[in-house]
Amino acid sequence: MSRRLIAVTALVVAAAALTACSGTTAPAESSSSEEGAGDGFGLVKDGVLTVATEGTYRPFSFHADGGTGDLTGFDVEIIQAVAEKLDLEVEFQETQWDAIFAGLDAGRFDVIANQVSINDEREEKYLFSTAYTVSPGVIVVPEDDDSISSFDDLEGKTTAQSLTSNWYELATESGATVEGVEGWAQAVELVRQGRVDATVNDKLTFLDYETTNSPSGLKIAAETDDAGKQAFVFTKDKTSLVEAIDGALEELRADGTLAEISDKYFGEDVTQ
């Protein structure tokens, strides 16, 4: 999950252009201009929000029932709620991560909904919605361990980390000795077995694990001051669409929908 961690806040305006929405799913005359679609958002299809997502990235975008059921997930439910606010249908295009930005650039999608982290490099090329996921880094320890309550306490401790992750750097900078692992699943097992003192990862990973493996016997000992933020991604010509989606997100935050979806997947509100 860390590949996407690490907002730009777009202006929030009322989606007045919704009155021009069309119920047809015929392709717009142009997908590269905001004037190309009858709804004023420059959508690939009039009245339809075409959304790129992986479909294999649990719990954000995945198929239920062991991969044979409907597409669902945290990101999927949030973008569906947004589209409903805007009176748009949703069409998902499941795309591998390595090709997802190329597809957006080519005009195949209107938006990416796939836990994309906001960072400076991406902001140079793309527009982002208001962040709908906020996740700090955390230290995970056995629930009966009170020896670690801050990152300074990792000095002299052993943590389990992927050697290519940002969390490896944070652990070593904090003075920990790192035992290399392939990923979260292996790291958390070493903590549970008492073979390492802790592991550092993002909070969403831990909350998802707690939701599906409770009681895990683990707890969060400390959090980073800074948090990674994830948002929907658009090409630079989609200003009106970004503004409308930001307005929908604001309404969904105010009426409790975002918190409700978050609690379903993570047991707490991770949307702000």
What features would you describe in this structure?
It is built from nine helices and twelve strands. 31% of the residues lie in helices and 26% in strands. Strand 2 (56-57) and strand 3 (61-63) form a beta hairpin. Mean pLDDT is 88; it is low at 1-38. The chain has helices at 64-67, 74-85, 97-105, 120-125, 166-173, 184-192, 203-213, 239-254, 257-266; strands at 48-53, 56-57, 61-63, 71-72, 89-94, 111-117, 126-128, 133-142, 158-162, 177-181, 199-202, 218-235.
Q: Which labels suit this protein?
A:
single chain; 272 residues; three-stranded antiparallel beta sheet; seven-stranded mixed beta sheet; elongated; disordered N terminus; alpha/beta
Task: Give a brief rundown of this model.
The chain has 272 residues and is α/β, with parallel strands linked by helices.
Number of helices: 9
Backbone CA Rg: 20 Å
Structural class: alpha/beta
Q: Alpha-carbon distance between the termini?
A: 19 Å
Low-pLDDT sequence parts: 1-38
Average pLDDT over all residues: 88
Task: Please give the largest β-sheet.
Answer: 7 strands, mixed
Number of strands: 12
Shape: elongated
- N-to-C order of helices and strands: EEEHEHEHEHEEEHEHEHEHH
The percent of residues in helical segments reads 25-40%
What oligomerization state is this entry in? single chain
Beta percentage is 25-35%
